[in-house]
Design a protein that fits this description.
By secondary structure, the protein is mostly helical. Helices cover about 75% and strands about 0% of the residues. α2 crosses α3 and α3 crosses α4.
């Protein structure tokens, strides 16, 4: 890349800026390793290096007409590559940040999980027969006669287990009704 390192208007840069495809391809081949290395260092990983390097090369080729030759061509290329890489990082951060609606949804799901967890722990503290009756009725949607048949218990016994289970669950939840009861 000795020809590109010299300050002043390089004939290949001028030719590429003027539309000479062969000159543009020669410049791309020369600067590609430097561009890829700089992108790799800036992005911390190889997942998007090729995409961002390609973006940077396109930006360099489009900007060739603005290169005045006051400094080293490589320094000018490095500035364009760095701006392109930083713009990519900024876009990635914006894409991974939850929107306000997603954040609200995440808060709601977290709160719902905490409530379900608290309910599960309260259910675990109930006597087996009461827990079984509550789960079959409220979670599985079974009627009292269906539960009585499933657990081989009299109808009134199942009603009693449900009533006592709800009262004990409410007490375990600090006086609040369990969701769905």
């Amino acid at each position: 890349m000795a020809a590109l390192a010299q300050p002043g208007p390089d004939p290949r840069v001028l030719a590429a800026a003027g539309g000479d495809r062969a000159a543009a391809q020669a410049i791309c081949r020369e600067i590609l390793p430097r561009v890829r290395n700089l992108v790799r260092y800036l992005l911390r990983g190889d997942a998007r290096v090729d995409d961002v390097a390609q973006e940077a090369l396109i930006a360099v080729m489009r900007g060739l007409g603005s290169f005045r030759g006051d400094g080293r061509f490589e320094s000018w290329v490095d500035r364009i590559v760095a701006r392109t890489a930083f713009a990519s990082l900024k876009r990635q951060r914006a894409e991974t940040q939850p929107t306000e609606d997603e954040a609200i949804d995440l808060d709601a799901r977290t709160e719902a999980y905490a409530e379900r967890r608290e309910l599960a722990l309260a259910l675990d503290r109930l006597p087996e027969d009461q827990r079984e009756a509550l789960v079959l009725h409220f979670a599985m949607g079974m009627t009292v006669p269906e539960i009585a048949d499933a657990v081989s218990a009299p109808f009134e016994t199942v009603r009693s287990r449900l009533r006592l289970g709800k009262a004990n669950l409410r007490e375990a939840l600090g006086g609040r009704d369990a969701p769905g009861t």
